[in-house]
Design brief:
single chain; alpha/beta; four-stranded parallel sheet; 16 helices; nucleotide-binding; EC 6.1.1.16; zinc; Cys-tRNA/MSH_ligase; ligase
């Protein structure tokens, strides 16, 4: 039987403000959409924390034997500076400032995003669609919303009439905001806007002559609104009604609120059963901001090239640090906090190394099945990674007692305990054993250097066919040789 049948899961639903029993729409299957990055700059640490939260959620669903379709998009058009409807597209602005094509900007920072997530041992999503790859779908949704009378065309742009929508629906159902209060607290339109109401949002924007990123549509040459792209991509790959939609807490309003409104206007039903939001990351007790210098990039943590930390910290240590806080809690990043996390991470890895050397006895003096269930209880309680980590350190204490001969473990329990603790550490939390990785790298370096020696000998013997064969086979494995004055080196 699949594991999920014996491990009931509760998820905090931002829509209800309560923890709810998780029941997928289709038994044994999970459809999950997470708002991805706008690729106009290097991915920042707060983004990494959000995506790490959903990486663990993805991993845990897989661990429970669910079949998961995880969709995480790339925003490569339509995200206006300051998250409003008027102004310059973030990517177009970056392209103008750096004198690049917009898609050069997109490519550069998409590669950076993937490199950073790979370094932090993220699983790739099932599908990673781009906004520019789904312009047709977005135009079709706009047509449907116009047909309902909730979308209206003004001067080549298309807007969503929030007041009209709210007559039959609840704009504010996710954020808890009241439309009357929102309208009362918004200054009157100055007569220069095409909107009927201040709270209306753009479904399609007519491009000004200088705007680089534009597509033809029935209304104008222009580009889609930021909120629309996620509605188009989530419904295309997960259907009009799916299980989970996630993102950062800052997206709850207006982005996710607008998504709900678009879906309900277009399909007549609420799109998502469980809305999940990860909380923010602060640095030394303050909001991270480039303008104040209170900022650090993920790559700067790994390299140590920063003025915030006392030294470099590995990706696994950083990951372990972040998972010590619940995804819905604010997490403060500091040198003292990550230094303490490094000590805890090393303790955990040393204990796992020691576990492999423990011998089984005839019986167990500890209830290891009860410990294992407590680990599941932690994750089943809205993916509570800090409680899981506390249970893992209880497991570390057991390992030390077993090493000292103060407790005993049967062969069956040793297998159960070892399988469970390794699964939670490596498969669910996504940590890596860096000592083992370093050892593997040393072995790889030794093998490559041996092949370089064989190639050098082949060249000396004028056996160029063998020399080229060694070089070419290494290239197919992703190992590039570089011949220089001081000999041959390699890079991965």
């Amino acid at each position: 039987m699949p594991l999920y049948t014996s491990q009931p899961l509760k998820i905090y639903n931002s829509l209800s403000g309560e923890k709810e029993n998780f029941k997928p729409i289709h038994e044994g299957n999970v459809g999950m959409y997470v708002c991805g990055p706008t690729v106009y700059s290097n991915v920042h640490l707060g983004n990494v924390r959000t995506f790490m939260s959903f990486d663990v959620i993805f991993r845990y669903f897989l661990h429970l034997d669910y079949k998961v379709r995880y969709v995480r998009n790339i925003t490569d058009v339509g995200h206006i500076v300051d998250d409003v409807d008027e102004g310059e597209d973030k990517i177009a602005k970056k392209a103008r400032l750096e004198q690049l094509e917009p898609m050069e900007v997109v490519q550069r920072y998409t590669v950076d995003f993937h490199d950073i997530l790979k370094a932090f041992n993220f699983l790739p999503p099932s599908i990673e669609p781009t906004a520019t790859g789904h312009i047709i779908e977005q135009i079709e949704i706009i047509k449907k919303i116009i047909d309902t009378g909730i979308g209206y065309v003004a001067n080549g742009s298309v807007y969503f009439d929030v007041v009209k929508y709210n007559q039959t629906n609840n704009y504010g159902v996710l954020s808890g905001r009241n439309i009357e209060d929102m309208l009362a607290n918004t200054r009157d339109l100055d007569g220069q806007s095409d909107k009927r109401n201040p709270q209306d949002f753009a479904l399609w924007k007519k491009a000004e002559p200088e705007h680089i990123m534009r597509w033809p549509s029935p209304w104008s040459d222009g580009f889609p609104g930021w909120h629309l792209e996620c509605t188009a991509m989530s419904t295309k790959y997960l259907g009009n009604h799916f299980d989970i939609h996630g993102g950062g807490m800052d997206l709850k309003f207006p982005h996710h609120e607008c998504e709900i409104a678009q879906n309900e206007a277009c399909t007549g039903q609420s799109p998502v059963n469980y809305w999940m939001h990860a909380n923010m990351l602060t640095l030394n007790g303050k909001k991270m901001a480039k303008s104040t210098g209170n900022n650090i990039l993920p790559g700067e943590i790994l390299s140590g090239d920063n003025t915030i930390l006392s030294k470099a910290f590995s990706a696994s240590v950083t990951r372990f640090f972040m998972l010590q806080a619940h995804y819905r809690s604010i997490l403060d990043f500091s040198d003292d906090a990550i230094t303490a996390a490094e000590k805890g991470y090393k303790r955990l890895m040393e204990a796992l190394d020691a576990l492999s050397g423990i011998s089984a006895g005839n019986s167990s003096s500890i209830d290891f099945n009860a410990w294992k269930q407590l680990c599941y209880d932690a994750m089943n309680d809205d993916f509570n990674t800090p409680i899981l980590i506390a249970q893992l350190f209880e497991g570390v204490r057991y390992i030390n007692l077993l090493k000292e001969g103060k407790e005993t473990i049967s062969a069956e329990d040793l297998k159960t305990f070892s399988t469970a603790i390794n699964a939670f550490v490596f498969d669910v939390l996504g940590l890596s054993d860096e000592k083992a990785a370093d050892s593997n790298n040393d072995k790889l370096e030794g093998v490559v250097n041996m092949l370089i020696g064989m190639r050098n000998q082949a060249r000396a013997d004028k056996n160029f066919a063998l020399s080229d064969q060694i070089r070419d086979q290494l290239i197919t494995l992703g190992i590039q040789l570089k011949d220089g004055k001081e000999g041959t080196t390699f890079s991965l």
